[in-house]
């Protein structure tokens, strides 16, 4: 066992060779990507987590925490920190001590990938969605606050990717955010802070595959609390075999909270619609959806997302939602096995009305055969029309009725 406790050597990211046609385009979107990959088995993950627990990892050159002492030395002791630590203890007890049995049931290694869309300046968010326009909204599934965005017992056997509403640094913390809930309930994903201490690049996402979901949480923020461990009895093989594997897509939207007093040279009321923010967020959304552009699999795939870039980032719900739906339409419409799940969940008292507005908007689009190209170009051509507190979905519907 001695070698397990020696300080590990963090392996380098290896660039993957991709068969790509540089000139190939899909409806104006270049598909050229750069991929870097690290693959680790669960014993290696266990070793790294042990070092993080005993705070034996060297401090990051970026001065960002990479040990778990941020949890058990937290000056502001709160429920969410306790929940993360309790989940980590359950992981060490149940997973580590039954590693051989679990390895036999699920031999998959844990994969970390950095995917970067190259030549970002060549992307045009004035896309043309007419080709193959699909008016079928069945691939969009809406969920409200009654649903748990982080876990779904009914679909535990499917392949599910949850979008992590990350900031530019992917990692855990002490505030009970959506990102922390994802990583905190899947401790194996926490080593991403060792593997990727640099901030994400302009067109980059980070994908983590095959991490176990150990716990279920409830509530949000500082009120987050541990609900239950999902491994009731690790001596029962049936229970181990049904452990839910989570796949995570980390993507950072524009941090508009730090730009509240910015000089608006474009005379646009909603910051999300300024060119530099709109283009950046659209490219990030394209990077997420382009992950599924190939014939991934014959099995159903579910992508869980929601009010990405809202909350602490102060993003506009309507614009961020439209960006994701347009990006999803481009890449997901050609694959019937891929389903886009959208969760209207935040701390706002208006979440129910937003969910209803979104449903009404999608129904109107479907019933009137309005293509995404028309909607998207209307938004791009009328940026100055929208006020900060406007219901943009209603404005789009009203203008279409007039026209």
From TrEMBL:
Query: Which controlled-vocabulary keywords does the entry list?
Result: Coiled coil, Hydrolase
Q: Which domain of life is it from?
A: Eukaryota
Q: Residue limits of the PARG helical domain?
A: 31-100
Q: What is its EC number?
A: 3.2.1.143
Which residues are noted in the entry as substrate-binding?
167, 178, 220
Q: Which GO terms describe its molecular function?
A: poly(ADP-ribose) glycohydrolase activity
**Domain annotation PARG catalytic Macro: ranges:** 160-329
Key word Coiled coil present: yes
GO BP field: ATP generation from poly-ADP-D-ribose; carbohydrate metabolic process; nucleotide-sugar metabolic process; regulation of DNA repair
Q: Which residues form a coiled coil?
A: 11-38
Q: Active-site residues?
A: 164, 179, 180
Q: Name one GO cellular component term.
A: cytoplasm
What family does the Swiss-Prot or TrEMBL record give for this protein? Answer: Belongs to the poly(ADP-ribose) glycohydrolase family.
For this entry, the protein name equals poly(ADP-ribose) glycohydrolase
Q: Which organism is it from?
A: Reticulomyxa filosa
